[in-house]
Predict the structure.
Amino acid sequence: MKPVEPRPYADPYVAGVGLGLALLAAFVLVGRGLGASGAFAATATGIVNIVDAPRAAGSAYFTRYLSTPGGPWREWLLFEIAGLLLGGYLSARLAGRVRVEIERGGRTSPATRLILAFSGGAIMGLGAALARGCTSGQALTGGALLSVGSWIFIAGTFAAAYLVAPLLHRSWR
C-alpha cells in the first residue's frame, strides 16, 4: 500500500479566524472562554475527592471545582479537552499526518528531546497554576476580554520566546 502524502498545513490566517470563531462560539454557547489548565485542576479535584483527602480538598485551588453542578467530573473544560484531543486526531488523520515519531534536531537524542519536552511542560503547568490560567486561557480568553494582565502576559510570552529561541535553535541543527 502506497503511503499517503501529507497535505500542506492550514493557512495561519484562516486557522486564526477559525480559532476566533471557536472562542466566540464558546462564549455564546457555554458562557465561558477557552483554556486547558482548568481541566487538569478539575481532574485533580475529582481524584482528591475519591481518595477522601479533606484537608487538600478544602484548599482554594480545589474548592472552585467542587461547586461545579454534578461535581468536578462535569467541568466544562474536561469536555473541551476531550473534544480537542478527538478533533486534533481527526484533523491529523484527514491530513495524512498520523505517525509515531519523536521530532528532534540532528544533535539531540530521543531521550534528551523527551526530557526537554516533559520539563518544559512541567514548567508551563507550574506557571499556569501560579498565573491562575494557562497560555490559551490567558492569551485567548483574557486577550479577547481585553484584560490588562493577559496582554502583559502575551507580551512577556513573546519576549521570552524571542530570547530563548536562538539558544534552542542550535540543538535542532
Summary: The chain is about 70% helix and 0% strand. The mean pLDDT is 83.
